[in-house]
Amino acid sequence: MDNIYVFEGKTSTEAIEKGLKELKVSKNKVDIKILEQEDKRSFFSILTPRIVKVEMKLKENVEISKNNKVQENKKIVTNEPVDNTEAIKNIKEFLNEFIQKLSNDNLEYSIKEEENIIKVDINGGNTGYLIGYRGEVLNSIQTVISNIASKSSKERIRVIVNIGGYREKREKDLQILASKIAATVIKTKKAVTLEPMSAYERKIIHTKLQENNKVKTHSVGEEPYRKVVVSLK
């Protein structure tokens, strides 16, 4: 099983420093991935996220000391099959109560598992207010549901929430944007920095432009203001 750990902080820098200190390793001995920002207070506070998570994976042949016990509340990621029965039960309890409190009586949800990922789809009626500007509210709802799913598990359970087919529409729009930006960079020979995006959206840009042999991408800045930069190779 991969040695992967998740740490939290008010910024990604703080979370990284905390992780390196607990693992007692230097930065060059781990692969670091910035995860989505999180807010653990309540659903009605989710528009002001204050917590950032980072994922640390020990590089090959790197081990932590047996005496170095990472805090038990850190979620370990595993690619092995996970029993998500309890997680799905918790998600259903939350969604039943959440939807009941909304004024939109036509909302329905479905839950399915794919490769250790719990996918939640919410549809029906007017869902625009649950999506928000460029998915801000949707991403916050996903954060809350992810916390609920993982609260009784030793593993970090991955949850993807989609509302009104927004994920597919946004992915298509970002892919079109990525192609246009690449064309601009090639024409002007100048790098372009995009507006801040979530880790999910940045990944779409990176993935789309991997197939372009004339441009390259990287991310800069701290969450939640991290941006993708597109430049010539």
Indicate the CATH architecture of the largest domain.
2-Layer Sandwich
Largest sheet: 3 strands, antiparallel
- Order of strands side by side in the largest beta sheet? 1-3-2
- E-strand count: 9
Q: Could you explain how this protein is built, in words?
A:
This protein is 35% helix and 24% strand. By secondary structure, the chain is an alpha+beta fold. The protein has three domains: 4-58, no CATH class; 85-164, GMP Synthetase, Chain A, domain 3; 168-232, Ribosomal Protein S8, Chain: A, domain 1, CATH 3.30.1370.50. A three-stranded antiparallel sheet has the order 1-3-2. Helix 2 (85-101) crosses helix 4 (136-150). The model is unreliable at 38-49 and 69-76 (pLDDT under 50).
What's the quick description here?
The protein is of the alpha+beta class. It is built from 6 helices and 9 strands; from the N terminus they run βαββαββααβαβαββ. The chain has helices at residues 12-23, 85-101, 128-131, 136-150, 166-188, 199-209; strands spanning 4-9, 30-38, 51-58, 108-114, 117-123, 158-163, 192-193, 215-220, 227-232.
